[in-house]
Amino acid sequence: DLNLAKPGCGRLVDIFVTPLQEPAGSVVIMLQERSLSEKIDRQLTHRGAGRSVAAMASVLAHEIKNPLSGIRGAAQLLEAEATDADRALTRLICEETDRIVKLVDRMSAFSEGRSAGREKVNIHAVLDHVKKVSQAGFARHIRFHENYDPSLPAVLGNKDQLIQIFLNLVKNAAEAIGESRRDGDIELTTAFRPGVRLQISGAKAPVSLPLEFCVRDNGSGVAPDLLPYLYDPFVTTKAAGTGLGLALVAKIVDDHGGTIECESLPRRTTFRVLMPMYAPARA
Fold first, then answer.
1. Mean pLDDT throughout 75-79?
2. What percent of the chain has pLDDT over 90?
3. Same domain, residue pair 221 and 99
4. Region 196-221 average pLDDT
5. In a domain, 266, yes or no
């Protein structure tokens, strides 16, 4: 499935042919979109961005959070003796200092401390949890559709971090659809793609990433000029956005040895996550 945008729209692909033992003379043909490797190459150029944010966060934690606590404390002391008009200003100071502290805390999530433990995880349980949380809050007005591969192998990952990945992607999808629309749809899909092998940073040989997880929505889409920078920190089109959500998603996916890509058209945007499957340790 090349997901052609419209009739007559061609795409460059690589063709892989493998013979089958039975029946005699049969072959398996796989078409892999060439642009996939180009998108992954683009993503690799941004992998250092998360490390830069981590270093920045450690500086901000000391140079900004400590003074902010003093500013907030002083504002609270002034509030006790302030007039009603001035009290509104002291509350504004407290609210803004709290907002800056939360921003620094979000950046601290990029810290390259000890990696989280990974285990055998059922991705369908993760996606069902994300759907339940979303429908109870920001996506209560959106219809969800699931298209799962029932025989999909487990993924090697950290369950909490996987939830964080897909909760961010579903939240972005819901925001792209908007609160006023009543025809919003989000589709969650899983599939096994045995032919996908990619050269991952730190690996000597191409790594198999056969597990494909997709979040698809019928929202407004991503502007073409924004796609190459989608996973860069502080890149956002939201008025109140921080631009850290997708950057954090890309870092967690990368930490899991996977990759993420985005294909976007009006009313059809797909975030595709490729990851390695769980393999029991050999005795």
1. 88
2. 27
3. no
4. 79
5. yes
For residue 55, the surrounding DSSP H or E stretch is: helix 47-60
Specify the CATH number for the domain of residue 232.
Answer: 3.30.565.10
Q: Is the peptide bond before 276 cis (omega within 30 degrees of 0)?
A: no
* Window from 15-29, 162-176, 249-263 with minimum mean pLDDT: 15-29
Q: What radius of gyration do the chain's Cα atoms show?
A: 22
Strands 197-198 and 185-192, by their bridges, are: unpaired
Could you tell me if 136 and 214 lie in one domain? yes
What pLDDT digit, counting tens, does each position of 106-117 carry? Answer: 666 656 555 667
Residues 230-249 pLDDT 10s: 887 777 766 566 677 888 88
Rounded to 5°, the CA angle 250-269-151 comes to 75
DSSP for residue 228? G
Residue with tokens 């219809």: 143
Q: What are the CA-CA distances from residue 263 to residues 4, 13, 36, 220 (Å)?
A: 11, 16, 10, 13
Q: Residue 267's domain spans which residues?
A: 38-44+118-275
Place of tokens 């945008």: 5
Residues 132 and 59 occupy one common structural domain: no
Query: What residues form DSSP beta bridges with 271?
Result: 215, 262
Number of domains in the chain: 2
Question: Count of H helices and E strands in the chain?
Answer: 7, 11
Would you state the pLDDT for residue 61?
A: 64
Q: What is the mean pLDDT of residues 87-110?
A: 78
Same domain as 189, residue 95:
no
Q: Is residue 100 part of a domain?
A: yes
pLDDT at 2 over 50: no
Token pair, residue 209, equals 């990433």
Whether residue 1 is predicted with pLDDT greater than 60 in this model: the reply is no
Residue with tokens 């055998």: 120
DSSP string, 92-131: HHHHHHHHHHHHHHHHHTT---SPPP-EEE-HHHHHHHHH
